[in-house]
UniProtKB/TrEMBL annotation:
GO biological process, one term: proteolysis
PROSITE patterns attached to this UniProt entry: RENAL_DIPEPTIDASE_2
InterPro entries (alphabetical): Metal_Hydrolase, Pept_M19
Disordered as annotated region, ranges: 53-75
Name of the protein: Membrane dipeptidase
Top-level taxonomy: Bacteria, Bacillati, Actinomycetota, Actinomycetes, Kitasatosporales
One Pfam match: Peptidase_M19
GO MF entries: metallodipeptidase activity
UniProt-listed Gene3D superfamilies: Metal-dependent hydrolases
Length: 75
C-alpha cells in the first residue's frame, strides 16, 4: 500500500484480506488458485531472492571501502 493513493473500499489495509478471499471463493476461485495468489507467491519471491543472494555472495566479497574513499573528503 506504500505510495497507493486510492484503495478499494474494504481493502484499505490487510485486515480486509479475509473478505477478499471469501469473495474470490464465492466467485469460483479454486483453493489452489487462491494459494498461488497469496502465500505461494510470497514463498516464490523469497526463494528467488535467496537465489540471487547466493549468486551475489559467490562472486566478489563485500566492499570494505569507506565513503571518503568512494566520494572523497567532505567540503
Amino acid at each position: 500500500y506504500d505510495g497507493t493513493a486510492f484503495t478499494p473500499r474494504g481493502l484499505e489495509d490487510v485486515s480486509g484480506y479475509p473478505n477478499l478471499i471469501a469473495e474470490l471463493l464465492r466467485r469460483g476461485w479454486s483453493e489452489g488458485d487462491l494459494a498461488k495468489l497469496t502465500w505461494q507467491n510470497s514463498v516464490r519471491v523469497l526463494r528467488d531472492a535467496e537465489a540471487v543472494a547466493r549468486d551475489e555472495q559467490s562472486g566478489r566479497g563485500p566492499s570494505h571501502a569507506t565513503i571518503t574513499e568512494l566520494d572523497g573528503p567532505l567540503g
